[in-house]
Design goal:
Elements (H helix, E strand, L loop, with lengths): L1 H9 L4 H21 L1 H7 L3 H25 L4 H23 L1 E3 L2 E6 L6 E3 H19 L7 H20 L3 H17 L4 H21 L3 H12 L10 H13 L23 H34 L3 H25 L17 H30 L8
Antiparallel strand pairs: 1-2, 2-3
Helix pairs in contact: 2-4, 2-12, 4-14, 5-6, 5-7, 6-7, 6-8, 6-13, 7-8, 7-9, 8-9, 8-13, 9-10, 11-12, 12-13, 13-14
């Protein structure tokens, strides 16, 4: 108990965000435990062995990484972002050429010795957001200058966007949207932002019509826009996701009682939200949505109170990335968007994706910790702190 109390004393940052992390982690363990029964059967192992040797371990490691990342002063991530960008761009190129192919897309790189694979786009999201926050902060004095600020900033965005979009359009579009939001917060002129959007649209068309996955993108859009014209194989995932939603009702079938987990190809990752509604009902779905909305609200609070521009931009970018990804996953599950491979942050099964998400949470809490310490200093010197 003494050790736990000492650990809790060192835990800083927004308590609401810590609560959201714990709740999402618990939901993840419950839903993934239920959803992996079919996967365990195919692999010929018990659910407990499959879950306990992988997902729970990654969840615990993720929480540990959140704790470690939140202890590090967020200002250090400005320097780290340069290193991450230097690593990320060659790694994205390597992934396109030599990456593991899953569903006709090169998104994964195998880590030597340990045999694990990870999506390089997860690293790229973290690298680009921290790098953009750093660049926008450093260029504030001449932020309207095209040559000094706009071109260097947008160069990094466009390079990362194209390299990710070539194999993973959905992640690239979400990251591009987060980048636009950061540019707006970072005081880039509206005219320049419009140029960015126009350039992004041209790049999107280029990748969509000339990229190696153009047929996949075309098929997904046609399936979403005109499902009645498609054969059952193309609408299989979305159809069974809708069945899961419809059969869940208000209160759900109860933990472990999902039927559609036996039909959906990825009920523990891409369609985990459908599993939540089937087993826990509309109430469960609303609770999960509310957790992400509260997360966004608390992060906006942190952004408005952050004493430094870098901290504000960093917290804004990472929180937008997490919540946009969350609602994109939920939108696919309920049929409001074409099928993508976007996981639900901190809930979906996925080792390295969960770890990169955990680092993002840790950085947000590091900024929140600085806000708390700054407010405490104001109280000590007799100043009136900002409203919570």
């Amino acid at each position: 108990m003494v050790a736990i109390n000492k650990l809790l004393d060192k835990t800083k940052g927004d308590r609401w965000i810590w609560l959201i992390i714990i709740l999402l982690s618990l939901i993840s363990v419950l839903v993934v435990y239920s959803s992996t029964s079919t996967l365990a059967f195919k692999r010929g192992v018990g659910v407990e062995k499959l879950l306990l040797t992988k997902h729970v371990i990654f969840v615990l490691i993720g929480i540990a990484m959140i704790y470690i990342a939140h202890l590090l002063d967020y200002r250090y991530y400005a320097g780290i972002s340069k290193v991450l960008m230097v690593i990320t761009i060659p790694l994205l190129v390597y992934t396109l050429i030599f990456g593991a192919n899953v569903n006709d897309a090169s998104r994964w790189v195998k880590i030597p010795l340990i045999g694990l694979t990870f999506q390089t786009s997860d690293l790229a999201k973290l690298a680009l957001i921290t790098f953009l926050a750093r660049m926008l902060t450093r260029k504030q004095e001449n932020i309207k200058d095209v040559k000094e600020a706009f071109i260097p900033i947008m160069g990094s965005v466009c390079v990362v966007f194209v390299l990710i979009a070539w194999a993973n359009m959905s992640t690239a579009l979400m990251l591009f949207g987060v980048s636009i939001l950061l540019l707006i917060i970072g005081r880039i002129s509206i005219k320049q932002i419009m140029m960015v959007c126009a350039g992004g649209f041209v790049l999107l068309l280029f990748v969509a019509f000339l990229g190696p996955r153009r047929e996949v993108y075309k098929s997904r859009i046609e399936t979403y826009m005109h499902p009645e014209r498609q054969n059952s194989d193309k609408t299989f995932q979305s159809d069974h996701s809708k069945i899961a939603l419809a059969s869940g009702g208000v209160f759900g079938k109860g933990p472990g009682n999902s039927i559609e987990k036996n039909f959906l190809p990825h009920p523990y990752s891409d369609f985990v939200f459908a599993m939540i509604i089937e087993e826990y009902g509309t109430i469960g779905g609303i609770i999960v949505m509310s957790l992400y909305l509260v997360l966004l609200y608390r992060c906006i609070k942190i952004v408005t109170r952050a004493p430094k521009a870098f901290g504000a931009l960093l917290a804004a970018g990472l929180s937008f990335s997490l919540t946009i990804q969350a609602f994109a996953n939920m939108a696919v599950a309920v049929g409001l968007g074409p099928v993508t491979g976007v996981p639900l942050p901190l809930v979906s099964m996925g080792g390295t994706s969960l770890l990169f998400t955990s680092i993002a949470f840790g950085i947000i809490l590091s900024v929140s910790k600085d806000v708390e310490e700054n407010s405490s200093k104001k109280v000590i010197v007799g100043e009136i702190p900002a409203m919570a």
